[in-house]
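If I may wish for something, please sit down with the protein I am sending here and say whether tokens and residues agree:
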Amino acid sequence: MRVLLLLALAGLLLGAGLVALIEQDPGYVFVSVGGITIETSVWLAVLLLLLAMAGISGMWRLLLGIFRSRRALSAWLGGRKHRNAAALTNRGLISFIEGNWARARKQLLRAARYSEAPLINHLWAANASFRLGDLEEMRKQLGIAAEVESGAGIALELTQAELQLSAGHYEQALATLVRARRNASKHPYVLELLTRAYTELGDWQALRELLPELRRHGLTSTSELAQLEATVWRGVLSDLTHSSELTEAALDKLWQSIPLQQRETAPLLECYLNALVCLGAHAKVQRQLVASLDKQWRPTLLPLFGQFVPADPKKLYKVVGRWLDQHGPEPGLLLAAGRVALHAEQWSKAQQWLQDAHSVEPTVAVCMLLAQLREAQGDVGPAADYRREALDLALPPMVKTPLPSTSSTSSVSST
């Protein structure tokens, strides 16, 4: 408060001094422009000059305000368009998720003009066109997306590959993905889509080469990767088994290249043993099969005993007898034991084990082996019964139809 009083007092003193100075010596200013002359005091000229400067400053500020307000209005209108485009894009994505492809495409394309990320609009519009079966429009939208965002080549190729995979065009998708992988070899999603394409095409060798990269990038969980790896190795083994390059040396080389953890799984071991059977390496099959079952009991391997001729039937006969004592009368083991007993020419034991298997779980294989055995023993009636049962088991269930009796058949034939 005291400072304000001092300032007011100073202002009054300064004003009084200025008035006294003006009265004492007002000064003189003479301005002549063309035929116009202006005469006034210095102090009035100074005052007019200050007023003119204030007016010019005011006009300048007014013009700046008008200009800024127009820019603000334009920015507000532009922001409103962007906000509307964003809202329309969201509605288009919701329509896509709901499965309304036509409405989704319409909303996405309407919003694309003012969208801050038009690439997304055109990509999803291409996806919607694909769902509608409009492949021409799909390609058009992908082309527009490439023009809108020149640096989005990988994203466009991945989108195109996804659509090709969904349509079942696996070879086209593979070509697109190989190109994308060449342009961005470290792009992880490329590897994921490549895995899908190679799996659908059954290109197990290519998948085998892709496994280290999948493991390094950690794209799948440990269990999923193990399952994929098992599928790949089974496919590679199957390809070699059915190729002209199958030799025991090539098979052993491939088998040793497979990780030990995979070699110990039943499906892969079964593929390997089937390949050995195709080569006629029956002694090796018997040795590997007995060693594997002694190490870990896996009944799924027991049907292999029907796929090869034992190299040492009598030795194998003792082994299956020991297994029956250890694991009990399992249907698969009884069938395998019956087969081995037949090879070892232990006829009574073979019949006993096969009949035990038949009583536990009658199957086509059990019935046919019993039919052959009984027929060889001269028991034609039981052999025919077993063959009939095998036929009933092999054929799908049929509705029982009425048939003529023996007497009616005889009367028809006599007439």
DSSP finds 20 helices and two strands in the chain. Residues 76 and 89 are 20 Å apart (CA to CA). Strands lie at 29-33, 36-40.
